Amino acid sequence: xxxxxxxxxxxxxxxxxxxxxxxxxxxxxxxxxxxxxxxxxxxxxxxxxxxxxxxxxxxxxxxxxxxxxxxxxxxxxxxxxxxxxxxxxxxxxxxxxxxxxxxxxxxxxxxxx
Length: 113
Fold this sequence. Notes:
Elements: H1 3-17, H2 32-52, H3 56-73, H4 77-84, H5 89-98, H6 101-111
């Protein structure tokens, strides 16, 4: 499966689960509004992660979230899942705690949690 197909499935599944799915998809099957929602939530998550960071490993997760956010903003769907897969359980825990459900679901799927 290509990375683009994986990401399209990932984001579609996340939005179907969170009841934000639409029928207006781009060529790769991912709606631009979905990427915008994900990038907004990743921005909120990045801010909270920076507030809580206390280790180098946390800083690495923050950098991966920033890269995933930028990829989503740029419409680079194939890069979003790749960057999210570089995060860890701490990032997922913080995302879940602050209620960014779309980002939480995407991270969970990307890290296989």
